[in-house]
C-alpha cells in the first residue's frame, strides 16, 4: 500500500491538474446538492416560519414531528424513494430511478425537515420579541411572516448552510436511488466510498479535499455576509 504522504501528494496533484473525471463528479455533485437544497428551502423556510410565528391546533405536534425528522435515517429515505420510483411503484412511469432527479428527491426529503425545524426555532425566537409591536400595528399574517423572514435572513443563511452541509455529505440515500453509475449518477461521496474499496486512495482523497474546501468556502461566505451586515448596522 502507498504511504500516506504519497497518497496525499497524488490527491493534490489530481486537484491541481483539474482532472476531467474529477471535475465531472464535482459538477454533478454540486448540481444535485444545490438543486435539492433550493427545493428544500422553498418548502422548509415558509413551513418552519409559519409554525414558528402562528398559533394553530396541532402546532406543537407538527413542531415535534419536524424535530424528529431531523434525524431521519438516509438509508430509509433512499429505500422509500426507491420503492416509489421503481417500475412497480406509483411514480415508476416517471422513469426517475437511477437518475440525478431521484438523487435530488432523496436529498430534498432529508434536508427539508432540517431547514424547517431550524427555521421554526429562529422565527419563534424573533416573533416573541416583535409580537406586541405586530399586534399594535395590526400587521397582517402574510406581512408578518415576510417581516420575520427578512429580519432573520442572516440566521436563515446559517440554516441553509446546515442543509447544504447535510446534503453534500450524503451517501446512503443517493447510492440507493442513484446506483453510482459512472458518468450518470456518480457523485463525490459515492465515488469516495467506491474508490476507497477499490484501493484508489488518491482519487478518493482528492474528492475528500474538495469536499472540505467547499465546506470551508461556503462557511467563509456566510460569515463574511454576517460580518458585513453587522458593520452596516453600526455604521
Automatic annotation (TrEMBL):
<protein>
    <submittedName>
        <fullName>Sulfate transport system permease protein CysW</fullName>
    </submittedName>
</protein>
<feature type="transmembrane region" description="Helical">
    <location>
        <begin position="61"/>
        <end position="85"/>
    </location>
</feature>
<feature type="transmembrane region" description="Helical">
    <location>
        <begin position="154"/>
        <end position="181"/>
    </location>
</feature>
<keyword id="KW-1133">Transmembrane helix</keyword>
<dbReference type="GO" id="GO:0055085">
    <property type="term" value="P:transmembrane transport"/>
</dbReference>
<feature type="domain" description="ABC transmembrane type-1">
    <location>
        <begin position="26"/>
        <end position="222"/>
    </location>
</feature>
<keyword id="KW-0472">Membrane</keyword>
<dbReference type="InterPro" id="IPR049783">
    <property type="entry name" value="ABC_perm_TupB-like"/>
</dbReference>
<keyword id="KW-0812">Transmembrane</keyword>
<dbReference type="InterPro" id="IPR035906">
    <property type="entry name" value="MetI-like_sf"/>
</dbReference>
<dbReference type="Pfam" id="PF00528">
    <property type="entry name" value="BPD_transp_1"/>
</dbReference>
<dbReference type="GO" id="GO:0005886">
    <property type="term" value="C:plasma membrane"/>
</dbReference>
<dbReference type="InterPro" id="IPR000515">
    <property type="entry name" value="MetI-like"/>
</dbReference>
<keyword id="KW-0813">Transport</keyword>
<comment type="similarity">
    <text>Belongs to the binding-protein-dependent transport system permease family.</text>
</comment>
<feature type="transmembrane region" description="Helical">
    <location>
        <begin position="97"/>
        <end position="118"/>
    </location>
</feature>
<feature type="transmembrane region" description="Helical">
    <location>
        <begin position="33"/>
        <end position="54"/>
    </location>
</feature>
<feature type="transmembrane region" description="Helical">
    <location>
        <begin position="201"/>
        <end position="225"/>
    </location>
</feature>
